[in-house]
Design brief:
6 strands; 2 domains; alpha/beta; 10 helices; single chain; Rossmann fold
């Protein structure tokens, strides 16, 4: 039996969210910092046992959400439907603790039933500005647990994700509130942001280099004057055409044809556009 679970990583920029995911999913660490544009979704399967001792596979869909606080629409859209949230801070930066109220408020609004695990990251660095005792005092009754992690040396990374996997199999306290519904405008906005993420990810996958891909994507957003927090259908069609044009400069004709085919398939799924 397989159970699909959505979890998110949120927190200030440069706290190590993307590096934690890389360490867990791919067992690697990269010192280069890439400020995520929008969201990126990774997948990792884990084996557990259910209440009857039977094998249970958890398919964890891990959402890496942009850390810039002004990207509120992306944050709220990404959090919806999450069973668990990793709230990540940097042990060497006090400001990442001072901003926690913002992140807690967002979780409460978008995913009030989600389990929260707090990760104090970069535990391998010497210049730590707060202790585990400080965290326990600050976060008392707000999170399921607090863990000190290091994406660089792997400390507690596997343990954190497995802990999240276990607790998301449990139902959090019930709520009598009806699930929030979106207006038609909000639904369209959410749909366009998901399309935006798929177009961006397809381009980065084609290049085989996320850093290069994201740099190119940012330039196209600027050139086309697109606000990636609220893209329109017409703007995303323009972006798709522009990325196809840029893609011609990077790979052989066969790779380009595969990229183009996948791009049109994505657009057809959303708009009914055919090649």
């Amino acid at each position: 039996m397989t159970r699909k679970v959505k979890v998110c990583l949120i927190g200030d920029p440069a706290v190590g969210k993307t590096s934690l995911i890389r360490r867990f999913v791919y067992s690697r660490f990269d010192d280069d910092y890439i400020s995520s544009l929008g969201t990126k979704v990774s997948q990792k399967n884990m084996d557990f046992k259910d209440n009857r001792g039977q094998p249970l596979e958890v398919m964890m869909m891990i959402w890496d959400i942009a850390g810039q606080r002004e990207f509120q629409s992306i944050l709220m859209s990404g959090l919806k439907g999450s069973k668990g949230v990793f709230l990540v801070a940097d042990l060497t930066r006090m400001d990442t603790i001072e901003h926690l109220d913002h992140w807690f408020d967002s979780i409460q609004k978008a995913a009030p039933q989600a389990h929260i695990v707090f990760l104090a990251n970069k535990s391998d660095l010497p210049d730590q500005v707060f202790s585990n005792e400080d965290l326990e005092s600050t976060l008392k009754n707000k999170v399921s647990t607090i863990m000190l992690t290091s994406a660089k040396d792997g400390s507690n990374v596997e343990e954190a994700f497995r802990y999240m996997g276990r607790i998301t199999l449990e139902e959090k306290k019930s709520s009598n509130e009806m699930p929030a519904t979106q207006s038609p405008k909000e639904e369209q906005g959410s749909r366009m942001m998901k399309l935006e993420d798929r177009l961006i990810q397809n381009f980065c996958d084609y290049l085989g280099d996320d850093e290069l891909g994201m740099n190119i994507v940012r330039k196209q957003f600027d050139a086309l004057h697109i606000d990636f927090r609220d893209p329109s259908e017409a703007e995303l069609k323009k972006l798709s055409n522009k990325l196809l044009e840029v893609a011609k400069d990077f790979k052989d004709p066969q790779s380009l044809a595969r990229y183009k085919q996948k791009q049109f398939k994505i657009l057809e799924e959303y708009f009914g556009i055919k090649e």
